[in-house]
Amino acid sequence: MPRVIGIDPGTVSIDVCGLADGAVMLERSWPTAEVAGDPAGFLAALVAAGPIDLVAGPSGYGLPLVRAETVSDADLRLAFLAPRGEQAGIMGLRSLVRGLVAAGMPTVLLPGVIHLDTVPPHRKLNRVDLGTADKLCSAALGIHDQARRLGGRPADAAFILLELGGAFTAAVAVQDGRVVDGIGGTGGPMGWQAAGALDGEVAFLAGEVTKSLLFHGGVTTIAGGRPERMGVAFDAFIEGAVKAVRQLQTSAPLASEVLVSGRLGGDPAVRDRLAEALRDVAPVRALSGYAAVAKQGAQGAALLADGLAGGHHAELVETLRLRAASGTVLDWLHVVTPDEARRRIGLEAAE
Questions:
Q1: Where are the alpha helices (H) located in 178-226, listed in sequence order?
Q2: Contact present, 168 and 266 (Cβ < 8 Å)
Q3: What range does the domain containing 219 cover?
Q4: Is 119 a domain residue?
Q5: Residue 150 and residue 280: Cα distance in Å, rounded?
Q6: H or E stretch including 46?
Q7: How confident is the model at residue 36 (pLDDT cuts 50, 70, 90)?
């Protein structure tokens, strides 16, 4: 049976989860800055895990399911949406993908929510970030977790995933075991570091919305180290997450619970506030998963790698329809054209 690895590239940490015949054989967490400064050490740790059949690699905003050795620089620019010279956010992950290939690791890049044909087209209009590939992985873990706890199959899962990461807040709606909608961190509620969706007039007044700006304006910015500001910032953080769940009820009316993941999702005080605010919607449950160290996204990525390699979780992959993913993250833009967006990240217009 397959030996696989899933990678979750977070703003604060990069986590790895490895499975051998469905059982955990590797889990580690590195500070993201450390991996950026020494990718060789990170890659060496993966190679030391022994022969690997498949790695679900860092995929940014996602690509239709593709082997990493076949992707072009243009593909990676579409996955990570960073122009030349931009150093903020997930810029360094393109080099990490190339490093995985050079190290001989059989790596696949996963789709984001917007690539899935289970999300209706009208929910994609003028959107890029409906949930990055790692949010899809967390949703996959949620499907696995709910099926295991309730004794059902992946196709029975119905929930709203609320991911409260170290920088962004995002949410994903799952019904009948499939992702049907999402609210990405750059288009959703306030995050711990990030402002979330920007008022159009704020974007205008900023003059230029850079990648670094997308990681700014959240709870840490508002509080600014001043305790008297933390209360209002925290209230906005919680209420934004609650509104995201209620919004996604429209897309997943049969959701039976709210699963909370991410760095802030592990805080009991945060979950208690959410449970009280959402008591009329569904029970709120922490998505802990099956590993002790690796974040939820890495665990979900390992499940998908296992399924793609023909392991125990093949049904999960088929239910999510990963192989039917298509298109690019720019296909649904109308505020700017896809060609204008391509030029913004240093690519030529599509033929």
A1: 200-206, 211-214, 219-223
A2: no
A3: 3-344
A4: yes
A5: 21
A6: helix 39-47
A7: confident
Give the type of residue at 235: D
Find, among 281, 286, 246, 5, the residue nearest to 149 by Cα: 286
- Positive or negative, the Cα torsion across 276, 269, 216, 63? negative
Residue 39 predicted with pLDDT over 90: no
**For the domain that residue 93 is a member of, what is the CATH number?**
3.30.420.40
Radius of gyration of the chain (CA): 19
Is residue 227 one of the residues assigned to a domain? Answer: yes
Helix spans in 250-344 (H)? 268-277, 296-308, 314-320, 338-344
% of residues, the chain, pLDDT over 70: 97
Specify if 100 maps to a domain.
yes
Q: How many domains does the chain have?
A: 1
350 domain residue, yes or no: no
Output the six-digit token pair for 167: 């920088």
Strand 54-56 versus strand 66-67 pairing type: unpaired
Q: How many residues does the chain have?
A: 351
pLDDT tens per residue, range 67-76: 999 999 899 9
pLDDT one-digit tens code per residue, 259-301: 999 999 999 999 999 999 999 999 999 998 999 999 999 999 9
Q: pTM for the whole thing?
A: 0.95
Residue with tokens 């609650």: 242
Phi, psi (deg, nearest 5) at residue 176: 55, 35
249 and 255 in contact (C-beta within 8 Å)? yes
